[in-house]
Specification:
2 helices, single chain
C-alpha cells in the first residue's frame, strides 16, 4: 500500500512524503545482563539496512529458515542468552526529502 501524505518538516513547513508498509523481523532477547533487547534484523553485510518483505508469510518463512534452530535449543533461550524466536512485524516506511542535507 503506497500513499503520498504531507508530513511536517523541521522548519514547520510541509513536504511530500512517500509512505509504504512492509513486514520486517523483530529480534528479541531478555537476560539479566542486558535486560530486554529488541531491534529490527538487518542484512549480514549492512546491519543497519533492515530486511523487508512484501508479505507476512515471506517474513515468517525467512524466520523459520534462518532462526528456526532457536526453537529447539533451550540453552539459547535460557540465561545468559535469553533469546526468543524473532517475530514478523508490520512496519511503516517513510521516504521524504531531507532539506538540511540538500
Amino acid at each position: 500500500m503506497t500513499s503520498l501524505v504531507s508530513a511536517p518538516s523541521l522548519e514547520g513547513g510541509k513536504l511530500r512524503a512517500n509512505v509504504q508498509t512492509a513486514w520486517a523481523i523483530l529480534w528479541r532477547s531478555e537476560n539479566r545482563l542486558d535486560g530486554k533487547q529488541e531491534h529490527l534484523v538487518g542484512t549480514p553485510y549492512h546491519p543497519c539496512r533492515t530486511v523487508l518483505f512484501d508479505t507476512r508469510q515471506e517474513a515468517r518463512a525467512f524466520i523459520a529458515e534462518q532462526y528456526g534452530y532457536i526453537r529447539n535449543h533451550p540453552d539459547l533461550r535460557a540465561e545468559p542468552f535469553g533469546w526468543k524466536m524473532p517475530q514478523a512485524v508490520r512496519v511503516k516506511i517513510v521516504v521524504a526529502v531531507d532539506k538540511e542535507a540538500a
